[in-house]
Design brief:
This protein has one domain: Jelly Rolls. The chain is mostly beta strands. The chain is built from 2 helices and 14 strands. The two termini are about 15 Å apart.
Length: about 260
């Protein structure tokens, strides 16, 4: 666990050094195996961000969950390395937002092609219900607001939102109590855009050669956690306390680099 946290801090130092050196979101990344002046190993070529299951290292650290929400490091369950992030929310008999999230700002701009990978886990006794429980989303930054969401509803993994793409992506009936690996490709383009989704190594959704743009904003942020959207206006259809666990988050320029099983 200690080694993993050290690696996460090293990755942060590398990203900071890359930005200072002129490697911006639209530019290149450090070569694989390259070292900065301090002798710290940089991220692999083609990797723009990664986090190995700790709340540190995200743009919004220290996080501030809504209401009685919790976002914290845990040692179990963990996908790799002995720790993961638990995003938890508890219903308190009032409406409004129920968000517990990590956020990485300015992860992609119009004209760019990115792959977002992570592993998520829900408990073996997770109760399927007909309310949206979002676990990751991409949001425009200027002006800001929700855009494309990925969520669990009943026994399905779904996408939806104002981005114009809605689908039942995969069944998760038999995946409770297991780590579910998800990679999402977003290519922002007015006519040749793409959105593709892999679940546990299998491509489950693909739209290419279409318009994929984050409304009027030029950039988006990536948020990961738990969003009990159904609780805004209605009491829980399932349990009043829910947790989603997250590990091995990475943004890269290919599916192979973003796939959690590969690193």
């Amino acid at each position: 666990m200690l080694r993993k946290r050290i690696r996460t801090r090293i990755h942060l130092l590398c990203v900071t050094g890359a930005l200072v050196g002129g490697l911006t979101l639209s530019g290149g990344t450090a070569e694989a195996g390259a070292r900065d002046d301090a002798g710290v190993r940089a991220l692999p070529a083609g990797v723009y961000f990664q986090n190995e299951g700790t709340v540190q290292g995200w743009s919004n650290y220290p996080q501030k969950p809504q209401k009685q929400g919790v976002i914290r490091d845990v040692t179990t369950p963990a996908y790799k390395g002995g720790n993961a992030i638990e995003a938890k929310q508890t219903y308190i008999n009032e409406g409004g937002g129920y968000h517990s999230e990590t956020v990485q700002a300015s992860t992609q701009a119009v004209g760019q092609d990115r792959y977002y990978g992570q592993a998520i886990y829900v408990a073996p006794n997770w109760q399927f219900h007909n309310q949206n429980v979002t676990f990751q989303q991409w949001s425009p930054e200027d002006p800001e607001g929700p855009w494309e969401l990925m969520f669990l509803q009943n026994d399905e993994l779904r996408i939806g939102g104002s981005g114009g793409f809605s689908a039942n992506v995969a069944k998760v009936t038999d995946l409770r109590g297991t780590w579910i690996r998800i990679v999402t490709r977003l290519k922002f383009h007015a006519t040749d855009g793409a959105i593709e989704i892999w679940v546990n190594g299998v491509k489950k959704y693909s739209k290419t050669g279409v318009t994929v743009l984050p409304k009027t904003s030029k950039t988006v942020r990536w948020s990961s956690g738990i969003y009990c959207t159904g609780w805004r206006e209605n009491p829980p259809a399932g349990p009043s306390e829910l947790s989603v666990f997250h590990d091995q988050a990475r943004i890269a320029n290919s599916y192979g680099l973003a796939e959690p099983a590969n690193w």
